[in-house]
Amino acid sequence: MQKVVKDLTELESEAKHLLARLALRADGATLITLSGELGAGKTALAKALARALGITEVVSSPTFVLEKIYRLPAGSPFARLVHIDAYRLESGAELAPLGFDEIMQDPHSLVILEWPERVADALPPPALAISLVALPDHSRQVEIVAA
Fold first, then answer.
1. Domain CATH for 7
2. Cβ-based neighbour number of residue 142 at 10 Å
3. CB contact at 8 A, 86 and 113
4. Total domains present in the chain
5. Starting at the edge strand that comes first in sequence, how are the strands of the sheet with 67-71 ordered?
6. Is 101 strand, coil or helix?
7. Are 114 and 31 in contact (CB under 8 A)?
8. CA distance linking residue 70 with residue 7, whole number of Å
């Protein structure tokens, strides 16, 4: 599915629709991958997803720390959101120090991973693979592929 998102308000609405499509997996974490060039809106979408899940603290890009973990409020289908930015990684093996294998075994975790192409050799199939493209009018083309 492809659509154009004109602004942050529409991005927030799209984040809610995306979350409504997700269900807990019995066999491990739910993975959402976000692809796109620098400035395409990956982190903006990750922030919108976090807000839609009820996270009230500031959500920022984990580019330099690689991973941020947020506890989700009671009533959420997931217990925690794990936000990973793989931009600085060169292979999936570099996810190991983050405890990625253990995270992916927890069915109560929602993992949002930016730059999946950099660590593709270590990723299971995502529940949603989302690609973003910045358009000249500052809107974003969003392509969503569900597993």
1. 3.40.50.300
2. 23
3. yes
4. 1
5. 2-5, 140-146, 128-134, 30-35, 109-114, 80-85, 67-71
6. helix
7. no
8. 25
